[in-house]
């Protein structure tokens, strides 16, 4: 019974209202918004494109070699006109200084 009595007093203590205190507050307000610092903004830099260097072409060194000399073609037409007559008795007449001049 003693337990019930202590529990009842505890419950009554919780349910008792306390005295209300009324007071008057005076305040002055100016309608200026406060200073707001925005979150930091990250701006990514522009991508940098580095073009590869242009290819370098090397011309091979010239090769010098002696030219092959082709001999000129040799044409053989046989003997000259009248060469076959040099054994003839009129050889001087055919091959003389006045050959084919009507003499």
Automatic annotation (TrEMBL):
Keyword set includes Signal: yes
Keywords, in A-Z order: Signal
Signal peptide from the UniProt entry: 1-22
Protein known as: Virulence protein
